[in-house]
Design brief:
Blueprint (H helix, E strand, L loop, with lengths): L5 E5 H14 L4 E5 L1 H5 L3 H8 L4 E4 L2 H9 L5 E4 L8 H8 L2 E4 L2 H9 L6 E6 L11 H12 L4 E7 L8 E2 L2 E2 L2 H13 L4 E2 L3 H7 L7 E4 L15 H4 L5 E13 L4 E2 L5 E2 L4 E6 L16 E4 L2 E6 L7 E4 L11 E7 L5 E2 L1 H7 L4 H7 L5 E5 L1
Parallel strand pairs: 1-21, 2-3, 2-11, 3-4, 4-5, 5-6, 6-7, 7-10
Antiparallel strand pairs: 1-12, 8-9, 12-15, 12-19, 13-14, 15-18, 16-17, 16-19, 17-18, 19-20
The structure holds pyridoxal-5'-phosphate.
EC number: 5.1.1.1
Organism: Acinetobacter tibetensis
InterPro entries: Ala_racemase, Ala_racemase/Decarboxylase_C, Ala_racemase_C, Ala_racemase_N, Ala_racemase_pyridoxalP-BS, PLP-binding_barrel
């Protein structure tokens, strides 16, 4: 029998979450963002559930080729654009749309020797300061691309830095969106604005002909703890499950694991779980990180080691070797431990946990 740790990918949750994005943006094309191997889920494991999306968005041409290999003939958008002039050959061959966010990429397009018909998302840097043209340089870039025979379609694009919260006491979108809209008025055309946080929080205020839904599709709330997945009606799409492989009875003053960082103050029953940081569970997760055993909520105890962690079995009277442990996601009876709660206790976000599951973990697909 393989080691009992498994990442279960729930097809019904992926479909449900995509439907939530669609319902929020009924007038938009809704793209499923599947970068980072579909946020750790595996592109091939989410494809069936997401193939009713209007497009896929990702970063790697190799991942784009995998989607084409699955039979996808619709749109694929490269969110970081091309990394070399040679990439344009792949974009032409595989019909990939891409962002243009710097001057060099425009030169590569100008110099591309093959007749092609590209769809380009021109990215504005209106405050995020990672990629894109500042508003002063944006119009020139727009005009250059408009003049290229190889650019068939041109879409205005921006990315919010604070759609999940406030910025300096004000709405998190206002400081970026105003300048974007001004340019949109002067140079009308389709636009791509919204990520998950903007889809869920600002759908009534924002026009985004192409919505780029990422984290919400995977059942994590982009603005946790302000809103939980229950608030947004999202379902966990990944469940990291394992089992109890040993039970220890502690006496007062006994400790657990490396560094003896947890010391019992009373007699306690402790379960040892086949899950450690080599599976992608955060080593930094402190005593008290939530976990489900037999669908009942309890907590981790002591340090996470490479292959194991310890859980408090006091609330779970019937726990035994082989009992189901849910590190995040859904139990087999449907109890939910949102990944956002585990992440917050560990000082991070759901995005990082779902991307961090390692290669030695088996995956399974569930309807
Ligand atoms: C990752 C990404 C998204 C999706 O963001 P979520 O917060 O996961 O919805 C959207 N747009 C761009 C440009 C991205 O890089």
């Amino acid at each position: 029998m393989p080691r009992p740790i498994t990442a279960v990918i729930h097809q019904s949750a992926l479909k449900h979450n995509l439907a939530i994005a669609r319902a929020a943006m009924p007038d938009s094309q809704v793209f499923a963002v599947v970068k980072a191997n579909a946020y750790g889920h595996g592109i091939e494991r989410v494809y069936q559930a997401f193939k009713s999306a209007d497009g896929f968005a990702l970063l790697d041409i190799e991942e784009a080729k995998r989607i084409r290999a699955l039979g996808w003939t619709g749109e694929i958008l490269l969110l970081e654009g091309i990394f070399s002039p040679q990439d344009l050959y792949d974009c032409a061959q595989y019909q990939l749309s891409f962002t243009v966010h710097n001057e060099l990429q425009i030169q590569w397009l100008q110099q591309f020797p093959v007749a092609a018909q590209f769809k380009v998302f021109l990215k504005m840097n209106n405050g995020m300061n990672r990629l894109g043209f500042t508003p002063e340089h944006y119009v020139h870039a727009w005009q250059q691309l408009k003049g290229l025979a190889s650019v068939k379609d041109l879409v205005h694009m921006m990315h919010f830095s604070d759609a999940d919260g406030e910025r300096q006491g004000q709405s998190g979108i206002e400081y970026q969106h105003q300048v974007f809209q001004q340019i949109l008025q002067q140079y009308p055309g389709p636009c791509s604005v919204s990520n998950s946080a903007a889809i869920l929080r600002y759908s009534s205020q924002l026009r985004s002909d192409y919505a780029r839904s990422g984290i919400m599709l995977y059942g994590s709330s982009p603005d946790f703890p302000r809103h939980t997945i229950q608030d947004w009606n999202l379902q966990p799409s990944m469940s990291l499950r394992s089992e109890i492989i040993s039970i220890q009875q502690l006496n007062p003053n006994d400790s657990i694991g490396y560094g003896s960082s947890f010391v019992a103050d009373r007699p306690m029953r402790v379960g040892i779980v086949a899950c450690g940081y080599a599976d992608g569970y955060q080593r930094i997760s402190p005593t008290g990180t939530p976990v489900l055993v037999n669908s009942i909520r309890t907590r981790t105890l002591g340090r996470v080691s490479m292959d194991m962690l310890a859980v408090d079995l006091d609330p779970i009277l019937d726990a035994q070797i082989g009992s189901e442990v849910v590190l995040w996601g859904q139990s087999s009876t449907g109890a939910v431990l949102p990944i956002d709660e585990v992440a917050a206790t560990s000082g991070t976000v759901g995005y990082e946990l779902m991307c961090a599951v390692t290669a030695r973990v088996n995956f399974s697909i569930q309807e």
